[in-house]
């Protein structure tokens, strides 16, 4: 088909078609921008609401924390824990003297007797004084107490042995032996160990 319209009208139609296409693209771009703006606004509002909600939760938690006095409770728990550790430490050094005396009396050799005990709380040991009829018996006291089969002491050392029949309080036992002994860690004569080994 041959278009016999004058060139001015042809150009007018051509520009009119272009204007319609441009208007359509302008509307599409405008709708897209409005949609993107709506999405951005929704995102900002959601972010603001989430921030406000989390701030409220933090404020409520801090208020509860102050009301319940968690810091004070935690300090009390630490204090109780420290006290309990101190009690365990003290009890671990407490000696059951009735049991200890029976055991020591059982291992003291004949011709000797126990005359004194002195507990050294700082070192977990004990100072022992015994009388004996002679020097050999006095040294046998140390050998018997240091024997690991007795489960009383991990070691027992002689501090000194003095034999003087003239100045002895009891002439039958002229020798005095001073010993320093260290309790064995698993001996049943400490309060803590006795509880652990009891059925």
Characterization of this structure:
With 199 residues, the protein is an alpha+beta fold. The protein folds into 2 domains: 1-68; 95-197, Gyrase A, domain 2. Helices cover 58% and strands 19% of the residues. The chain is built from 5 helices and 4 strands; from the N terminus they run αααββαββα. The chain has helices at 7-68, 70-93, 97-107, 135-146, 191-197, and strands spanning 112-120, 125-132, 153-163, 175-183. It has a 4-stranded antiparallel β-sheet, with helices on one face. A hairpin with a 4-residue loop joins β1 and β2. The longest helix has 62 residues, at 7-68. The chain is rod-shaped, with a radius of gyration of 49 Å. The N and C termini lie far apart (118 Å). The model is unreliable at 191-199 (pLDDT under 50).
Whole-number average pLDDT?
Answer: 79
How many domains is the backbone divided into? Answer: 2
Helix content, binned percent: 55-70%
Q: Count the strands?
A: 4
Write a short abstract of this structure:
The chain is α+β, with helices and mostly antiparallel strands and about 200 residues long. Helices cover about 60% and strands about 20% of the residues. The chain is rod-shaped.
């Amino acid at each position: 088909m041959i278009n016999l319209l004058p060139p001015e009208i042809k150009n007018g139609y051509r520009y009119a078609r272009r204007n319609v296409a441009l208007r359509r693209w302008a509307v599409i771009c405008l709708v897209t921008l409005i949609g993107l703006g709506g999405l951005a606004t929704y995102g900002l509002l959601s972010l603001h609401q989430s921030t406000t909600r989390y701030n409220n939760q933090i404020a409520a938690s801090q208020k509860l924390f102050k009301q319940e006095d968690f810091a004070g409770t935690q300090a009390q728990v630490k204090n109780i824990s420290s006290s309990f550790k101190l009690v365990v430490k003290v009890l671990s050094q407490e000696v059951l003297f009735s049991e200890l005396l029976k055991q020591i009396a059982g291992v003291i050799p004949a011709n000797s007797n126990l005359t004194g005990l002195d507990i050294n709380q700082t070192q977990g040991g004990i100072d022992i004084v015994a009388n004996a009829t002679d020097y050999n018996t006095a040294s046998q006291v140390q050998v018997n107490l240091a024997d690991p089969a007795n489960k009383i002491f991990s070691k027992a050392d002689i501090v000194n042995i003095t034999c003087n029949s003239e100045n002895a309080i009891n002439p039958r036992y002229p020798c005095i032996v001073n010993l320093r002994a260290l309790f064995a860690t698993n001996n049943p004569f400490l309060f803590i160990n006795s509880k652990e080994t009891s059925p």
